[in-house]
Amino acid sequence: MGILGRLPHAACLAAAVASLAACGYGSPQPPLASVNPSDSAASWMSPAAAAKSLLYVSDAQAFDVYVYSFPDLKLTGKLTGFKRPEGECSDAKGDVWITDNQNEQILGYHHGGTRAVAVLNDPLGYPAGCAIDPHSGDLAVTNLFDFSGNGGVLIYKKAAGTPRPYTNPSQYFYYLDGYDNKGDLYVSGKTSSGSYMLSVLARGKDSMSTVSITGAKIFVPGTVQWTGSSLLLGDQRCGFAKTSCLYEAAVSGTSARITHRVPLTGSCDVVQVAFEKGRIAGGDYWSCGGAGHNSTDVWAYPRGGRPTKAVAGIHAPVGAAISDAPDL
Question: What topology does CATH give the domain 4-323?
Fold first, then answer.
C-alpha cells in the first residue's frame, strides 16, 4: 500500500520510523529512497499562482510538495526542504499546513508562498495529518505514533504555541483527521492489532471516543474530510483489493453510517484527497505493479470513477490540500 497505508501492524514500527514505507500487501517493502538526496533547489512559484486556486500534493520520496493550478493541474510551483512531507490541510484564508514527518515539524504557508510563515515543533512523535477547526482556528495534528509508542492528536490553539495531546486508549496508529461543521474532530487510524478504527474528539470535550461504523468495512485508513453534509472517509485498500475508494458517512455522536461509496476506478493507493464542491483531488501512489504510474488526479464528486484529469511526474504522493486565493 501507500506511505501511510504500509503500517498495518505494530511490528512494522522499526522500519516505519526510518521511511514510513514498510509492510505493504503482506510482505515487507524496502524503504523509500530519496529521488534527489542532495537536492538543494530552492522553492519556486509562478507569479500567476497567487490569483489561482491551487492544489498542493506532498511527495514523500522526492521530499517536495508539488503545487498545481486547480482544477487544470498545470504545475505552478514546488516547495522544497522537507525530510518527509505527508498530510496537508488548508483554512478559509488559503493558508496551507504541511506535516514534515521526519523533521517532526508542521509548516504553514500563505497561499502561493514559497517560504514557511510558521513552523511548529512536534514534541511527541511523527506528524502525519492535520486539520483546521473552522470555528476556533485550532490546528489538530495527528502523530502516526509517538517516540514512546502509540500515537495521538496534538491540538495547537490558534495554530501556535505548545500543543495539548489527546488520545483514545483503543487506538494505536493515528493517520489523518478532519473537522466537521460543528467543530468535532474525527481521526482515522488503527488498533495495535491492525484493525481500522475511527475516533472523535467532540468540541469542548477533554477525551476522545471510538466511533462505531456500519454499512461498510474499511481496511486501511485514509482521508477524513467534511463535505458540508457528510464525513468522507478514505480506504487505501478498498474491499481488501489493490485499489482505493472513499465512503460518505452520516455521523451522529459516536456513530457513523456509510451511505455511499465513491469508487476511484483504476487507482492503486490514494492516501489523502482534498474536497471542493463537485470535485476531489489527490495523488495516486502506484505500488501495485503492472502498467500503472504515479499521478496527480482530479475526480468528479460524488460520482467518482476514472479521473477527469491526471498528470504524471510525481513520485510518491501522500497528502493533498486545496487552497483558494483570498479574493476568490
Answer: Neuraminidase (2.120.10)
State the Cα–Cα distance between residues 208 and 185, nearest whole angstrom.
9
The x, y and z cell numbers of residue 281, run together, are 483531488
Count Cβ atoms below 10 Å from residue 19 Cβ, excluding itself: 19
The type of residue at 226 is W
Report angle CA 189, 227, 328 to the nearest 5 degrees. 125
What count of residues does the chain have?
328
CB atoms within 10 A of CB 41: 10
- Smallest CA-to-CA distance from 86 within 301, 266, 317 is with 317
Residue 233 sits at φ, ψ, to 5 deg, of -115, 125
The model's pLDDT over 199-255, given as tens digits with 9 standing for 90+, comes to 999 999 999 999 999 999 999 999 999 999 999 999 999 999 999 999 999 999 999
Helix/strand/coil for 189:
strand
Question: Which grid cell is 26?
Answer: 503482506
**Residue range 76-112, pLDDT digits in tens:** 999 999 999 999 999 999 999 999 999 999 999 999 9
CA 103 from chain centre, in angstroms, equals: 17
DSSP string, 214-278: ESS---SEEEEEE-SSSEEEEETTGGGSSS-EEEEEEEETTEEEEEEEEE-TT-S----EEEETT
- Name the stretches of the chain with pLDDT < 70: 1-40, 328
